[in-house]
Amino acid sequence: MSFVVTVHFRAKAEWRDAFRAEMVANATASREREPGCRRFDVCEDGADIFLYEIYDDEAAFRAHLATDHFLRFNERTAPWVEEKRLATFRRIDPKD
């Protein structure tokens, strides 16, 4: 079973464009460089950014959290975030 991560962000108004660009760059690096990352979607609705990520397993997600691109993204954008909510799930229907 895959490991699914969802994250909801609300960026501060003055940082929304910069946050969006950094998030897309982080997602792209994750998809291209992390063998355990199966999907990393960045979705937007106004001020809200929603991530839907699928990893092979929890270990692959933990490896993601230790990558240089994630650590840079997290350090740079943390002050730009008003709200962040993360949830994890085990995917029980592997059909795409």
What features would you describe in this structure?
It is a single chain. The protein contains 3 helices and 4 strands. It has 96 residues and is an alpha+beta fold. It has one domain: Alpha-Beta Plaits (2-Layer Sandwich), CATH 3.30.70.100. A 4-stranded antiparallel beta sheet has the order 2-3-1-4. Helix 1 (16-33) packs antiparallel against helix 3 (68-77). It is globular, with a radius of gyration of 13 Å. It starts with a strand and ends in a 6-residue tail after the last strand. The mean pLDDT is 95.
Topology record:
Elements: E1 3-11, H1 16-33, E2 37-45, E3 48-55, H2 58-65, H3 68-77, E4 81-90
Antiparallel strand pairs: 1-3, 1-4, 2-3
Helix pairs in contact: 1-3
Features of this protein?
4-stranded antiparallel sheet; 4 strands; 3 helices; alpha+beta; Alpha-Beta Plaits; 96 residues
Order of helices and strands: EHEEHHE
| Unreliable parts | none
CATH architecture: 2-Layer Sandwich
Structural class: alpha+beta
Amino- and carboxy-terminal Cα gap:
13 Å
How many E-type strands? 4
Radius of gyration (Å): 13 Å
- Average residue-wise pLDDT: 95
Give a brief description.
This protein has 96 residues and is of the alpha+beta class. It contains 3 helices and 4 strands, in the order βαββααβ.
